[in-house]
Design brief:
Elements lengths: L2 H38 L1 E2 L10 H7 L1 E2 L1 H14 L7 E10 L2 E10 L2 E4 L2 E6 L6 E10 L6 E5 L4 H20 L11
Parallel strand pairs: 1-2
Antiparallel strand pairs: 3-4, 3-7, 4-5, 5-6, 7-8
Helix pairs in contact: 1-3, 2-3
Length: 183
């Protein structure tokens, strides 16, 4: 094997190893935040489907799936995660044989869910039957963004309005973090 081939091979191995280490660190941090928010907040179904601000969820220590996802979104935001890779995702999931609407936080293709502490690629979640819509903020934090997947705008419009309201509140408040991520 030539000297250059050996150098290229060593360089490639180092880059590949560095990339794997960064990916493992990312997954570790996402798992840490996901687990600690899941432990901190007690699930409480709200029949009126009111989306709480992160501050309200921290104060009450209760919430439903949207409140967990919004708090995790905020935690990633204040810890410097890339906002372009974060979105709330409205999904349909098969939960104990019933199809239910559910909200999770996505970072890249990883799903952060209040139903499990384990952060995995969404493609590995066999209980998800449909991905309905995404809600996020643009990178300068000035406006809400929506993307809906094969659903009429009329069906998603109430959620869009809720996201507009809650995202404005998130941006206006200086909610203290409960430091769910130890560096």
């Amino acid at each position: 094997m030539s000297y250059f081939k050996i150098l290229f091979f060593i360089f490639f191995i180092n880059i590949h190893h560095h990339s794997q280490a960064q990916e493992q660190d990312l997954i570790y941090q996402l798992n840490q935040i996901n687990h600690q928010v899941n432990e901190f907040v007690t699930y409480e179904n709200d029949t009126e489907d009111i989306w709480q601000t992160p501050e309200e969820t921290l104060w009450k220590k209760t919430g439903d799936c949207e409140d967990y996802a919004i708090l995790k979104y905020y935690e990633l935001l204040i810890h410097g995660f890339d906002i372009k890779k974060m979105k709330l995702r409205f999904i349909k999931t098969n939960f104990d044989g019933y199809i239910k609407s559910h909200m999770v936080l996505m970072y890249e293709n990883y799903i952060m869910d209040n139903l499990t502490d384990l952060v995995v690629d969404i493609d590995k979640r066999k209980d998800i039957t449909h991905q309905v819509a995404d809600f996020s903020l643009n990178e300068n934090l000035k406006e809400a963004i929506y993307l809906y997947h094969g659903v009429s705008i009329e069906k998603i419009n109430p959620f869009m309005k809720k996201w507009e309201i809650i995202s404005k509140k998130i941006l206006e408040t200086k909610t203290p973090s409960v430091v769910f991520l130890q560096k």
